[in-house]
TrEMBL record:
Negative regulator of class I heat shock genes (grpE-dnaK-dnaJ and groELS operons). Prevents heat-shock induction of these operons. The keyword Transcription applies. Pfam families: HrcA (PF01628), WHD_HrcA (PF03444). Residues 11-78 form the Winged helix-turn-helix transcription repressor HrcA DNA-binding domain. Keywords: Repressor, Stress response, Transcription, Transcription regulation. Belongs to the HrcA family. This is Heat-inducible transcription repressor HrcA.
Length: 355
């Protein structure tokens, strides 16, 4: 079996049609599709033996497989991915579905949280699947920040806002960070956070980095000019000042300067890490159709997630709505429903001025 999923361009017309019919049959019935069934539906008249040969080729490519010993085949996760990205025909939103969604959002009363609850209920009802609604990120002033290490490559940030709202966000910290470095970052940010939003806090940390950079440049300038030291990767994350003649520094106050430079380097490195923490905390993830193990949350249940972002009045992505269901979702129907719901929520959020 190849170590990559082939492109549709690598399949000839017959292979592409057989592949499409297998996937569509599976999505419709949930059952394996056999060669005899395909002989009755293909646009060209070919024998069952010919179709079996094509299916064997598709199986070798990792696009379809057999759930048990039978002549029938179902799409693999890679096959579903290829189908969704290249062959999926998205239909128009059904008039009845549109009316149900419009009716749900017709009630303009209540706060944004109530609106999103109604959206989730409507989406579940229309699609007969589990709904997922991600609320807009909060942009109120911060009262307290806490970082919690969950694993070597995973951490949780707990944001407590001045208005009492609490929000948890997962992120992947920069390599090499420890629980103690996360605590140190939180302590530094909490000393600056009061009355500031996350965006404003990022600006303050940026100014701190610029100030340390300027002081470091000033102290190191004389050492570099006299040839005692030289910069390696100056201005980058891995920058270092290499001292080649420490003996020339003795008795001239140079050792004190060198110690101060070392302290500035350590401080600059910490603040760069903190700035990266903030950037990771603020950053939103891209959204699309996740199939099976493409989303670790659903990898054990054989589920898919169809999700679409919604935006505020400034065209900034502030949340998302989606549907969770089996991998044999009716993607052609679900995609326009999720897309339309996201547009409705975005308009409502923009009308209310939420951000």
């Amino acid at each position: 079996m190849p170590d990559r999923t082939p492109n549709l361009d690598e399949l000839n017309d017959r292979s592409r049609e057989v592949f499409r019919r297998v996937v569509e049959g599976y999505l419709q019935t949930g059952a394996p599709v056999g060669s005899r069934t395909l002989t009755r539906t293909l646009s060209e008249q070919v024998s069952a033996a010919t179709i079996r040969n094509v299916m064997q080729d598709l199986e070798f490519l990792g696009l379809i497989g057999s759930p048990h010993v039978s002549a029938g085949r179902i799409p693999t996760q890679a096959g579903l991915r290829l189908f969704v990205d290249g062959l999926l025909e998205v239909g128009d939103l059904d008039t009845e579905d549109r009316a149900k969604l419009d009716e749900t959002l017709g009630d303009r009363g209540g706060d944004v949280a109530s609106l999103l609850d109604r959206v989730g209920s409507a989406l579940s009802g229309v699609t007969r699947g589990a709904s997922l609604v991600l609320a807009p990120k909060h942009e109120a002033p911060i009262r307290h920040i806490e970082f919690v290490s969950l694993a070597a490559d995973r951490a949780l940030v707990v944001l407590v806002f001045a208005d009492g709202h609490v929000e948890n966000r997962l992120f992947s910290p920069p390599p090499g960070q420890t629980p103690s470095s996360l605590r140190e970052a939180a302590n530094f940010l909490n000393a600056l956070a009061e009355g500031r939003t996350l965006s404003e806090l990022s600006t303050v940390v940026g100014r701190e980095i610029a100030a340390r950079r300027q002081e470091l440049d000033t102290l190191a300038a004389d050492l570099v000019e006299t040839g005692v030291a030289e910069w390696i990767n100056r201005g980058e994350q891995t920058e270092r000042l290499i001292v080649r003649g420490r003996g020339n520094l003795l008795g001239e106050g140079g050792e004190a300067d060198l110690e101060r430079i070392r302290e500035l380097f350590d401080d600059l490195e910490r603040k760069r890490d903190i700035a990266e923490f903030l950037e990771l905390t603020e950053r939103g993830e891209g959204v699309r159709i996740f199939i099976g193990s493409e989303n670790k949350l659903f990898s054990l249940s054989g589920s898919s997630l169809v999700v679409s972002p919604y935006m505020n009045a400034d065209r900034k992505i502030v949340g998302a709505v989606g549907v969770i269901g089996p991998t044999r979702l009716n993607y052609g129907r679900i995609v326009p429903i999720v897309d339309y719901t996201a547009q409705l929520v975005g308009r409502m959020i923009a009308d209310r001025g939420a951000s």
